[in-house]
Amino acid sequence: MRKDLVQSKERGNSKGVVKTGKRVVNSLIRLRIFDEAMDLFIDYHKYLNSETLRRIKLEESNQIYMNNVLNSFFDNLKQSYASFCEQFAGLLSSCFSTYLSWCDTEVEILIKKLQSQHYLSLI
């Protein structure tokens, strides 16, 4: 199952990653393999976030670039939360801390990326 997800990512097919990721995570949940399901869920959403940020062109003006980055990042986070709630319904109490930890890491990555591009002063 992980191989299917890796192959979708290697092909650069974001829609394929989402479709494959959801299918694999749902299969693992049905098999009651929650830890692996959570790992794969985070893996494919991490890939989607990085791909979205990668696709935004740096040639745009700073304001447009920042608006695109932040809007895309937080839209993706909002979508991943909705997807998380849908896929892990009934398991939220046992999986939520892992999801929040991943969100925290993603925000830290965004901050480091913005700092490295001199959009934020060092915090």
Give a quick set of tags describing it:
single chain; 123 residues; mainly alpha; 5 helices; 80% helix; globular
Describe this structure in words.
The protein is mainly alpha-helical. Helix content is 80%, strand content 0%. The chain has helices spanning 2-10, 14-30, 34-55, 62-87, 92-116. The protein is globular and about 50 Å long. The N and C termini lie far apart (40 Å). The mean pLDDT is 81.
> What is the radius of gyration?
16 Å
Helical content stands at over 70%
Distance between the termini: 40 Å
The ordered string of helix (H) and strand (E) elements is HHHHH
Total strand segments = 0
Tell the overall outline: globular
Tell me the strand percentage band: under 5%
Query: How would a crystallographer describe the biggest sheet?
Result: none
> Would you identify the regions where 5 or more consecutive residues have pLDDT less than 50?
none
Query: What is the typical, i.e. mean, pLDDT?
Result: 81
